[in-house]
C-alpha cells in the first residue's frame, strides 16, 4: 500500500529536546536493516519549557506545540497521496470522525478540554501540569517519560527513589515489546479528539494500513452516528474502501501515531512492518489542531468533492 | 528512683482497703508497664491517673513521635527521662511526591542536640521524612557512645560522608538501614570506614545507594560480622560478588540482592545455586535488580521459607513470576511490578494461598502507551485465590465498580486498601460511571479498614459512603475527586477515628475546611493542596483553633488570596520557628 518513500522534512526541529534524541543502539533500526533516520519524520518541540496549562490532556500540549513548530511539515504531508490524512478544514460543534467538509472552520473552539470535561466532571480546576523534571529525564538512558508528555506534579504517587530508579534503568521495554511482538499481539491505544474514551487495537492482526483504517472507522463510528444526520452524511453501511478514503480525505481528521522516541508522526509514511514496530499509540487528530493547517486543508477538501 | 520511693513510703502509711488497692507499689507498676510496648497503649495507660502517668513515663524506653512539630524535643525530654529509642516522622507524606518545597523543615539537628544532653545513652533512632545533614550524622555518631541502630526512610539532606562518620564512630552499631532516601552518593568508600575490630553489625541495608561500593571492604565486613541477619545490597553488587558474600553469611534471614543479571558461566551459575540453597532460613528476599529470567531458578531452593518477596525492582514477565511463585508456598507479602500483568497475578492467586499483602507498582507510570500493565482482572484473580489478603497497593489503568465489589466480597478483611487508577478522574471503563460504588463496597464490607486511598472519577457519593461506613478509618488519601464541599464535610463529620487526611486537586473549599474545626485536634494532620481553600478560610481556622498550626505554602506567581497548599496539624509546641519564607504560619 504505502511505499517506503523518503521524506526530508527540513527545518522542523529547531530546538530538539535532549530527551527527544534517539537512543543509541536502536535495536529495531539495526534489526530491520533500514536506516530509520532517513524515513523518520523528526519533529522537535519548540522548547523545553512547557507552559502551565489548564487542560489535563497531555496530548494536546504536545501536539499543539508540536504542530506550531511543524506547520509546513503538515501541509506537505497533505500534498502527498496515499496517506492517511483526514484532511479538510471545517468542523462544527461536535466532532464526527468522518463528517465531510463543512462550510466554516468553526471547530477551533472545541478543544480537548471541552470534550474532557464531560469525562472528568467535578474535578478541581487547574491542576498544576508541568513537564517532568528534566534532571530525571536526562539522567538516564533516555527512555524515560517522553518529553512530549505533560505530567501532573506528583502523580501517580510514586516515590522519587522508585521513579529515578525506573527512569535510569527502564525495565527492558524493548525486550518486552519484542516479546510481545513474538507472542502475537501488539495493543496500542487509539484516541480520537472529542471521543470520551479511548480504544485499543492490536496492530498485529492487520495486514496493512487499509485494514487498520477500516477497523478504526468501525470503532469510532459510534461517535459520528449522532452527528452524521446533522452534517448530512448518509448511512454508513457498506462503506467501501474508496469511499472511506474519500471521507478520510474529505474530513477534518489526521491519523497520527507516536513512535518510540515520543515523536508524533503521520501515519502512512513508512512500511507497515516498520510502523508496527515503532508505533506506540495512535491518535485521530483534528487537523484544525494544527494551527495554520486548516486553511490549506480546507482548500484541499473543497478540491476533493 | 528517688521520687517513686518517696511516693511509696507515703502510700504505705495509709491502711484502709481502698488505699491499699490504690497503693500499688510504683516499682511493680513500672515493671509491669515496662512490658507494655505499643505506644498507643502506653498513651492510654498514662491517662488513667497521676500514678500511672508517672509510672508510665519512667518506664518508657521508646518514644514514637508521628509529627516532629507536634511537640518539642524539650517537652519530650522533660516527660520521658529514660528514652533509649526514638522514632520521628517529619514532612507530610506528599513530600514523597515532590509536593513539599525543598527547605520545608523537619530538621533533626535540634532534636539531636537535646537528646545528646538528656539521653546520652540513646541507642536507636528511626527517622522518616526528616532532613538530616552530614554534620548531624557526625554529631550523632560522636554524641552517643551506646548508639546501636540507625534507620533512615525517605529522608534527605545527607551524603555518604555522613554514613562514613557513622561507620567510623559507632563502635556498637548493630543496624544501619538506609531506605529510599535522597542521598547524595559520593561513592562507596564509606564502607571501609568500619574499623577492623568492628563485628557487631546485624542489619545492613544500603540498597538505596547508587554508586559502586568498595566490595573488598564489604566482603571483609560481612565476613567478620557473624551475627548478620539482614543484608540488602545495592545494584552495583554483581551476582558473582553476591555469591561470595553469601558463602560467609548463610544464616541471613533477609537478603536484598544486587544486580541479578551478570553473564555467568555454568560453573558460576552452579556455585550460586548451591550457595543460595544453603540459605534455608531466609524469610525476606528483595533487590533482584534487572533480574534475568534464566537466573531466577537459582533462587528456588532458598524460597521455601519466604514470607516476603519484593520484586518491585525486577521487571519480570508473567511466566517467570509464575515459576518463581511455585516455590514460595508460604508467601505472605508480595511486591511486584506490573510487567507481570494479569497473568502473573493469576499465578499469585494460584500459588500463594497465605498471601496477606500485595503491592503492584507501575513499571512505566508516566507512559500511557502501555502494551502491558495490570487491570481489574489481575486484582480479581488474586482476591479469589488469597482470602487472607488485607493490604493492597494497586496501580492500574482501568478498573470497574463490579470488580472491586467482588474483590472485597472475597477479601472482607482489608485493613489497607490503596487503589490508584493512574489516569486522574477516570470512570469505570465498562460502564463509564463514577467509581463511587467501588469504594462504597470497600467501606461497607471491610469494617476493619484503617487506610484508604481513592482514585478514579468520584462524586461526593464516595465520601458520603466513607463518612457513613468507615468507622475504623485512620488515614484517607484523596486526589482529583469529589464534586463539592459536601464530600469533605461527610468525611469530617463521619470517620470517628480519622487521624490523617490528605487531599489534592479536589473542589473542596473553605466551607469544607472549616467544617472540621473541632475534628482537627483529634487528628494528626490535614493536607490540602490545589483545592479551593482561600487565605481567609485558613486565617479563620487559625484564629478559631489556637492549638492547631495552620501553615500555607506559597507558590510563586500564584494568586495571593488562594491558599494553594495547606498543612494543618495539632501541636503542643506552638507555631514552629524554623519555617522557610515560603511557608506562612497563620
Automatic annotation (TrEMBL), chain A:
Q: Which SUPFAM superfamilies does the record match to this protein?
A: CAD & PB1 domains
Q: Where this protein primarily resides, as one coarse class?
A: nucleus
Q: Which Gene3D superfamilies match?
A: Phosphatidylinositol 3-kinase Catalytic Subunit, Chain A, domain 1
- Which keywords does the record carry? Auxin signaling pathway, Nucleus, Repressor, Transcription, Transcription regulation
From the Swiss-Prot or TrEMBL record, state where the protein is found. Answer: Nucleus
From start to end residue, where is composition biased (Basic and acidic residues)? 20-41
Extract the Pfam families matched here: AUX_IAA
Superkingdom: Eukaryota
Residue ranges of region Disordered?
1-59, 95-123
Cellular component annotations (GO), alphabetically ordered: nucleus
Q: Where is the composition biased (Polar residues)?
A: 104-116
Record domain PB1: where: 185-287
InterPro entries named among the record's database cross-references:
AUX/IAA_dom, AUX_IAA, PB1-like
Q: Which GO terms describe its biological process?
A: auxin-activated signaling pathway; regulation of DNA-templated transcription
Protein role? Aux/IAA proteins are short-lived transcriptional factors that function as repressors of early auxin response genes at low auxin concentrations.
Summary of subunit composition and partner proteins: Homodimers and heterodimers.
Q: Which PANTHER family does the protein's record reference?
A: AUXIN-RESPONSIVE PROTEIN IAA17
Q: Which family does it belong to?
A: Belongs to the Aux/IAA family.
Q: Please report the name of this protein according to its UniProt entry.
A: Auxin-responsive protein
Q: Which organism is it from?
A: Hibiscus trionum (Flower of an hour)
Q: What is the lineage of its organism?
A: Eukaryota, Viridiplantae, Streptophyta, Embryophyta, Tracheophyta
TrEMBL record, chain B:
- Segment Disordered: which positions? 1-23
Q: Where in the cell is it found?
A: Nucleus
List the SUPFAM superfamilies: RNI-like
* Highest taxon in the source lineage: Eukaryota
Q: Which GO terms describe its molecular function?
A: auxin binding
- One Pfam family from the UniProt entry? LRR_6
Q: Any one Gene Ontology biological process term?
A: pollen maturation
Name of the protein in its database record: TRANSPORT INHIBITOR RESPONSE 1
F-box domain: from which residue to which, for each copy?
24-65
Recite the UniProt keywords alphabetically: Auxin signaling pathway, Developmental protein, Nucleus, Ubl conjugation pathway
Give an example GO cellular component term for this record: nucleus
Write out the pathway annotation from the protein's UniProt entry. Protein modification; protein ubiquitination
Q: InterPro entries recorded for this chain?
A: COI1_F-box, F-box_dom, Leu-rich_rpt, Leu-rich_rpt_Cys-con_subtyp, LRR_dom_sf, Transp_inhibit
Primary localization: nucleus
Amino acid at each position: 500500500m504505502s511505499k517506503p518513500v523518503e521524506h526530508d522534512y527540513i527545518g522542523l526541529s529547531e530546538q530538539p529536546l535532549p530527551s527527544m534524541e534517539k537512543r543509541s543502539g536502536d535495536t529495531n533500526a539495526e534489526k530491520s536493516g533500514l536506516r530509520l533516520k532517513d524515513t523518520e519524520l523528526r519533529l522537535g518541540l519548540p522548547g523545553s519549557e512547557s507552559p502551565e496549562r489548564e487542560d489535563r490532556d497531555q496530548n494536546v500540549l504536545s501536539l499543539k506545540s508540536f504542530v506550531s513548530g511543524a506547520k509546513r511539515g503538515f501541509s506537505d504531508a497533505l500534498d502527498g497521496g496515499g496517506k492517511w490524512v483526514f484532511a479538510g478544514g471545517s468542523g462544527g460543534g461536535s466532532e464526527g470522525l468522518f463528517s465531510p467538509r463543512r462550510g466554516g472552520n468553526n471547530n477551533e473552539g472545541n478543544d480537548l478540554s471541552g470534550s474532557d470535561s464531560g469525562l472528568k466532571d467535578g474535578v478541581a480546576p487547574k491542576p498544576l501540569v508541568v513537564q517532568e523534571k528534566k534532571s530525571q529525564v536526562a539522567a538516564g538512558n533516555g527512555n524515560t517519560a517522553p518529553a512530549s508528555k505533560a505530567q501532573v506534579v506528583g502523580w501517580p504517587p510514586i516515590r522519587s527513589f522508585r521513579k529515578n530508579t525506573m527512569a535510569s534503568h527502564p525495565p527492558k521495554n524493548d525486550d518486552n515489546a519484542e516479546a510481545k511482538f513474538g507472542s502475537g499481539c501488539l495493543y496500542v491505544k487509539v484516541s480520537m479528539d472529542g471521543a470520551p474514551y479511548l480504544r485499543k487495537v492490536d496492530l498485529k492482526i492487520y495486514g496493512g494500513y487499509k485494514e487498520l483504517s477500516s477497523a478504526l472507522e468501525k470503532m469510532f463510528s459510534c461517535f459520528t452516528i449522532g452527528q452524521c444526520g446533522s452534517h448530512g452524511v448518509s448511512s454508513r453501511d457498506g462503506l467501501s474502501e474508496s469511499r472511506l478514503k474519500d471521507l478520510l480525505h474529505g474530513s477534518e481528521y489526521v491519523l497520527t501515531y507516536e513512535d518510540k522516541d515520543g515523536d508524533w508522526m503521520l501515519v502512512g509514511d513508512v512500511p507497515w512492518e516498520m510502523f508496527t514496530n515503532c508505533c506506540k499509540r495512535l491518535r485521530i487528530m483534528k487537523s484544525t489542531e494544527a494551527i495554520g493547517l486548516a486553511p490549506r486543508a480546507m482548500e484541499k477538501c473543497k478540491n476533493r468533492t | 528512683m528517688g521520687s517513686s520511693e518517696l511516693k511509696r513510703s507515703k502510700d504505705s502509711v495509709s491502711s484502709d482497703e481502698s488505699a491499699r488497692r490504690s497503693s500499688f507499689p510504683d516499682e511493680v507498676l513500672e515493671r509491669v508497664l515496662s512490658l507494655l510496648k505499643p505506644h498507643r497503649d502506653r498513651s492510654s495507660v498514662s491517662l488513667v491517673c497521676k500514678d500511672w502517668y508517672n509510672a508510665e513515663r519512667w518506664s518508657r524506653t521508646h518514644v514514637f513521635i508521628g509529627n516532629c512539630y507536634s511537640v518539642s524535643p524539650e517537652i519530650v525530654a522533660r516527660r520521658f527521662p529514660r528514652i533509649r529509642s526514638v522514632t520521628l516522622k517529619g514532612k507530610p507524606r506528599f513530600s514523597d511526591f515532590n509536593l513539599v518545597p525543598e527547605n520545608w523543615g523537619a530538621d533533626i539537628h535540634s532534636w539531636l542536640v537535646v537528646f545528646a544532653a538528656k539521653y546520652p545513652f540513646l541507642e536507636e533512632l528511626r527517622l522518616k521524612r526528616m532532613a538530616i545533614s552530614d554534620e548531624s550524622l557526625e554529631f550523632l555518631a560522636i554524641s552517643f557512645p551506646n548508639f546501636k541502630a540507625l534507620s533512615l526512610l525517605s529522608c534527605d539532606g545527607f551524603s555518604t560522608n555522613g554514613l562514613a562518620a557513622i561507620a567510623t564512630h559507632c563502635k556498637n552499631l548493630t543496624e544501619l538501614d538506609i531506605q529510599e532516601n535522597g542521598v547524595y552518593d559520593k561513592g562507596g568508600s564509606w564502607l571501609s570506614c568500619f574499623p577492623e575490630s568492628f563485628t557487631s553489625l546485624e542489619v545492613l541495608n544500603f540498597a538505596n545507594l547508587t554508586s559502586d561500593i568498595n566490595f573488598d571492604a564489604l566482603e571483609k565486613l560481612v565476613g567478620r560480622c557473624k551475627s548478620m541477619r539482614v543484608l540488602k545490597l545495592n545494584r552495583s553488587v554483581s551476582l558473582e560478588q553476591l555469591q561470595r558474600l553469601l558463602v560467609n553469611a548463610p544464616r541471613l534471614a533477609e537478603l536484598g540482592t544486587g544486580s541479578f543479571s551478570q553473564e555467568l558461566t555454568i560453573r558460576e551459575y552452579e556455585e550460586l545455586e548451591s550457595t543460595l540453597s544453603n540459605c534455608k532460613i531466609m524469610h525476606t528476599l528483595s533487590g533482584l535488580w534487572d533480574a534475568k529470567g534464566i537466573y531466577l531458578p537459582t533462587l528456588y531452593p532458598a524460597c521455601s521459607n519466604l514470607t516476603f518477596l519484593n520484586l518491585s525492582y525486577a521487571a519480570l514477565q508473567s511466566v517467570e513470576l509464575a515459576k518463581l511463585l511455585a516455590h514460595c508456598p508460604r508467601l505472605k507479602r508480595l511486591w511486584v511490578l506490573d510487567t507481570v500483568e494479569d497473568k502473573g497475578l493469576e499465578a499469585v492467586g494460584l500459588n500463594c494461598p497465605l498471601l496477606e499483602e500485595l503491592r503492584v507498582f507501575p513499571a512505566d507510570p508516566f507512559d500511557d502507551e502501555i502494551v502491558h500493565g495490570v487491570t481489574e482482572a489481575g486484582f480479581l484473580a488474586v482476591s479469589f485465590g488469597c482470602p487472607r489478603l488485607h493490604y493492597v497497593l494497586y496501580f492500574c489503568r482501568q478498573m470497574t465498580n463490579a470488580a472491586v465489589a467482588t474483590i472485597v466480597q472475597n477479601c472482607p478483611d482489608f485493613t489497607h486498601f490503596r487503589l490508584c487508577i493512574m489516569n486522574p478522574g477516570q470512570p469505570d471503563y465498562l460502564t463509564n460511571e463514577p467509581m463511587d460504588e467501588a469504594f462504597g463496597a470497600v467501606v461497607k464490607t471491610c469494617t476493619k479498614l484503617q487506610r484508604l486511598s481513592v482514585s478514579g472519577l468520584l462524586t461526593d457519593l464516595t465520601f458520603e459512603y466513607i463518612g457513613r461506613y468507615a468507622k475504623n478509618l485512620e488515614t484517607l488519601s484523596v486526589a482529583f475527586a469529589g464534586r463539592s464541599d459536601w464530600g469533605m464535610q461527610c468525611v469530617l463529620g463521619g470517620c470517628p477515628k480519622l487521624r490523617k487526611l490528605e487531599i489534592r486537586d479536589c473542589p473542596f473549599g473553605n466551607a469544607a475546611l472549616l467544617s472540621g474545626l473541632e475534628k482537627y485536634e483529634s487528628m494528626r494532620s490535614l493536607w490540602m493542596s490545589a483545592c479551593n481553600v482561600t487565605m481567609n478560610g485558613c486565617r479563620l481556622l487559625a484564629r478559631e483553633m489556637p492549638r492547631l498550626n495552620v501553615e500555607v505554602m506559597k507558590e510563586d506567581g500564584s494568586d495571593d488570596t488562594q491558599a494553594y497548599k495547606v498543612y494543618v496539624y495539632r501541636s503542643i509546641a506552638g507555631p514552629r520557628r524554623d519555617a522557610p519564607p515560603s511557608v506562612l504560619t497563620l
